[in-house]
Amino acid sequence: MTDLIVPFSSPATGSVLTQKADCLLDEKTGESYPVINGIPRFCPPKNYTESFGYQWNRFDRTQLDSYSGAVQSCSRFYGETGWNPEELCQCSVLEVGSGAGRFSEVYLRTTNGVLHSIDYSSAVDANLRNNICYGERLRLAQASIYQLPFADNSFHKVFCLGVLQHTPSFEDSVAALIDKTRLGGEIVVDFYPINAWYTRIHSKYILRPVTKRLPKPLLLRLLQVNIRWMLPLFDLLCALRLGALTRFIPITDLRLFPRGLSTDQRREWAVMDTFDGLSPQFDNPQRLADVVRMFTSRGCEIGFAGLACFPGGTATVVRAIKRTV
User: Fold this and answer.
1) CA 96 to CA 98: how far, in whole Å?
2) Does residue 277 register a pLDDT over 80?
């Protein structure tokens, strides 16, 4: 298993870092990176992902299969990637954008492999709380997708789920994932698709210029209060077969939730997912053809591009194999 561990490297120089008591040190330059709460930090604590840090530390267990009693995270992970758990045990694997660790938990629970996982936000602390039981099989770091603390061409498998649309440059983010993948290695991403001209005619995009600027505790409180009428209105419109009108209610699509959630769990998911839609600094849906081009123009072969279906949902996914450096 140790031969599948990829050492932390300086994002600036690429040098392998040396572990010290409370930091990782680049012995060539003397630059060091702090280790806080057992997690190496390669970025400033304040950045464009602060809303996600707030969100995932507040809703740290909501989406975990082990907490909700659902299997949606597991179904989504394997439905989108198409991977085999036994095969993953023989691979070096990188997760980019872990959030509170819903997919980290799936990987660590269903395989015996090592997972290298990063997030740009303080959500890494939530991930550690949730998955600390897996010990050294989880190698966490807080870092930017544009300055990943690993050498290029390091990983057999790279996955990035629910993340790319929330980065400043979708195309640069794709390039960063490809850089860290070995020749013959596979990258799997999902993203919000642009399906038609009306994609951005949605309450989320109409309100975000204001809501993303609100203090996060205030936005959360507003949602907790107003979910009381938005939730039954959403259900009513669906019952009347007017589901198309729900896009004008500032609430997430409740039809995508796992079945079997209790009333309290469903309300918690509704608040969390709506906050997730209204609070990010960036939200950039993409056309599938454009994302395919981003991979092929950088020497990747497309294994799958389209709608991945799995029990409980669907997602727009691209799976690509790196063929050239």
Assistant:
1) 6
2) yes
The CB-based long-range contact list for 163-166 (8 Å cut-off, 24+ gap) reads 163/96, 163/97, 163/189, 164/189, 164/190, 164/191, 164/286, 165/191, 165/192, 165/282, 165/283, 165/284, 165/285, 165/286, 166/49, 166/52, 166/280, 166/281, 166/282, 166/283, 166/284
Beta carbons within 10 angstroms of residue 40's beta carbon: 21
The whole-model pTM stands at 0.95
The domain spans of the chain are 2-193+285-322, 203-278
3-class SS at 322?
strand
Q: Cα(191)–Cα(8) distance, rounded to whole angstroms?
A: 28
Nearest Cα neighbor of 101 from 47, 48, 64 is 64
- For domain 2-193+285-322, give the CATH number: 3.40.50.150
CA–CA distance, 281 with 125 (Å, rounded to integer): 21
Cα 271 to its chain centre, rounded Å, is 18
DSSP symbols for 216-240: HHHHHHHHHHHHHHHHHHHHHHHHT
Confidence of residue 3 (pLDDT cuts 50, 70, 90): confident
Question: 252 vs 60, 186, 268, 272, CA distance in Å?
Answer: 18, 31, 12, 9
Contact predicate 104/161, CB 8 Å = no
Which tokens belong to 135? 């010990």
Look at the alpha carbons of 78, 84, 88, 89 in this order and tell me if their dihedral is positive or negative: positive
